[in-house]
Each structure stands twice: as structure tokens, then as C-alpha cells.
Amino acid sequence: MAHYKALAVGVTVVAAGTLAACGGETTTTQPPRTVTVTETPAPPSMPPATSAGPERPESVARGSQTARCGPTVLKGEIQGGDAAAGNRYAKLVVTNTSSKACTLYGYGGLQLTDANGNPTPTKLTRKPDPGPALVTLEPGQQAYKNLHWGMVPDGTEPTTGPCEPESAGAKVIPPDETEPFTVTFGFGSVCRHGAIDGSAYYK
């Protein structure tokens, strides 16, 4: 959770007054005054899931008249795959639940969470397996995102018990969006400090 500190700036203002009198000149100097100005920085925009900047090129955006698939129209699940030699593979499956077509382009974001929705270690790396391509989902259609992570501690993590705090869910941010939807993550710890490889979305 970010903490915001008020920034106090002290400004010393010295006022001098000069009085002219008959028979001589008298200068009166006022004592220094200190004016304190308090500025409170605005909270930065912090999306609740690992994400990056805009993904969809202008050429793709201009060529598509269909709205993006946002978090309010998508539902998802993570389906387990193979596990071999300390590696785990899965697919994030998203479904368009709206009554209109929508599009996905790119990788989006992912943040693992515990059972209470609190973040657990996550380092999402984009892998072009496959890379970005425009995906159009008609109502009820699904798209996929390949996921891969390790199950072996990296040498700085515990070797007895979980290598990292166990994850029970994930917050998923669709490409070019800032708000997430949630999915269940039933695979426990993600070693190497939450390192996950993720592909772009595809059909």
C-alpha cells in the first residue's frame, strides 16, 4: 500500500521598511516571517495487477470497428496443463459474456493473490508464444493465454515448505485496460519470486 507524505516547504520572507525623518534617517527592519506551505501530492495511478502501456498499434486500432473486450464482459479460468522437470504449464481461458463481439490484442496483465485478495509475488514476462494478433470474440467465444512457471526454488527461497506465499487467485487485466477481473488460481506457490511467462491472447 502506498504511503503519501505531506511536503512542507518553509519560505522565509524578510520585510524592510525605511522611514525618513527630519534631522536624520531611521531604518526599521521587521523581524523575519516564516510562511509554511503544505502540498499533498496526488496518489499515483496504481492498477491492481501487473500491466504495461498501450499494446494495440494505431494501424490495428483504426482497422477494427469492434470494441475492446473489457473486464466487465470477460470471465475466465486457469486450466492446468503439464508439469515436468520442475515446470508447470497452464492456460488462462477467457470468455466473452456480452451480447456483442469484442476484440483482444496483446498480453494484458496478471497479479497473483492470496485467498483474501492480497497480492502475492508476481513477475509476469511476455513471451511471443504466440505473439500479439487481433482476436475477435463473438458472444460466448473464448480466447487463450499460455502460462508457464517454475516449481523449484531459485536459491534465495526456502527449500522446505512453500517457496513463496501460496496463491489462491489472480487479478487479470485485459490488454489496454486498467481494471481487472478475478479468476481462481489453484496451483499454490509460484517459485523464483512469482516469475510467470505469459503469451499474448489467441484463439
Number of helices: 2
CATH architecture field of the largest domain: Sandwich
Tell me, what's the shape? elongated
Rg, please?
Answer: 28 Å
**By CATH's scheme, which homologous superfamily of the largest domain applies?**
Immunoglobulins
The largest β sheet comes out as:
5 strands, mixed
Kindly report the average pLDDT value: 82
In whole angstroms, the N-to-C terminal distance is 36 Å
- Compute the number of strand runs: 14
Q: If you consult CATH, what is the topology of the largest domain?
A: Immunoglobulin-like
Proportion in β-strands = 35-45%
Order of helices and strands: EEEEHEEEEEEEEEHE
The number of domains is 2
What does this structure look like?
The protein is mostly beta strands and 203 residues long. The protein folds into 2 domains: 7-39, no CATH class; 69-198, Immunoglobulins (Immunoglobulin-like). It has helices at residues 58-63, 191-194, and strands spanning 7-13, 16-21, 24-29, 33-39, 74-84, 87-96, 102-104, 109-113, 123-126, 135-137, 142-150, 167-173, 181-188, 195-198. The protein has a 5-stranded mixed sheet with strand order 5-6-11-14-9. A hairpin with a 2-residue loop joins strand 5 (74-84) and strand 6. The longest helix is centred in the N-terminal third of the chain and has 6 residues, at 58-63. The chain is elongated, with a radius of gyration of 28 Å. Mean pLDDT is 82; it is low at 1-28 and 32-48.
